[in-house]
Amino acid sequence: MEQKFKSANILVIDDDLGVRESLKIILRDKYYVSTTSNIDEALNTLDSMRPEMIFLDIKMPRANGLDFLKHMRSANSTIPIIMITAYPSIETTIAALRNGAFDYIVKPFHPSEILNVAEKALHHNIELWERNKLVDNLRSAVKQNFFATTEALLHAIDAKDSYTAGHSKRVSQLLAFVAKELGMNESKIEILRYGAYLHDIGKIGVVDAVLAKPSYLTEEEFLLMKRHSEIGYKIIEPIDFLKECLPIVRHHHEWYNGAGYPDRLRGDEIPSEASILSIVDAYDALTTDRHYHKKYSHQKACEIIKQGINTQFVPTFAEKVLAIIDHYREIHPRDEQGKEF
Which of 4, 120, 169, 203 does the annotation list as catalytic? Predict the structure, then answer.
């Protein structure tokens, strides 16, 4: 016999065995059907079963179906829930629909009624999936366009100051490696990677004479340079998907002893992501040629950073990050110009 294709998983929650079996018989030719007699068992089943729709009795001895419906909606579940009851009333109908029920069926029901509402719920799921996919694609396109624009701005900064060319990209790659080695999850690593890539975006607002000065800056010039973290913050502040990057961009020049900028944060006031970035940022700056110094060796750069622990760099992270950088350098060696092989 040819096996029929079954298009979705359905969960039936009803304390009445007769109703559960009736629904199973009606639906089993087209759908995979699981049944349970109570809410607690249903909640334990959701993760493993992942139903595409739920038939839910409103009145059960130990728990009210409306409470389960509210729970599902508060958890932002999009599973269509069809309420079933033998005791219909205007009040319960309104309450069910207001709390996000997909449909409302009265016992005794006809098989065609059950099949029709199941078909509608399945089409609803497909439409919802397609809409969410479209939204995700649009968000992805917005991100791609934004980062293409951002990359152009960073190239403009590099053109203004050739000594820092590639700095943001290198810092972003190294910070992502450090974050992974520290055990951070993928979403956090992505935030750090974006934040690091954008951390110097505010330099687009620093005048060329200051940005590319071939010697140490005067006090007034340094005040202008220090504005880049605030300028960068203002550039990305309106962009919703980069909100979590804001602390990194604004605070990567704060010092552990409070002598940094722009907000003179100290100790635990400094966001941990910004503290980690400050170490990686300093390492890359020290190991590449700059207007005001020739590049230092890996060993010398690490020594300089260690000397800054408890003043510039947060002691909780410094030694760990330097050890990870040492490991990264073994995997990604640089040539004499500071470029990776």
Answer: 203
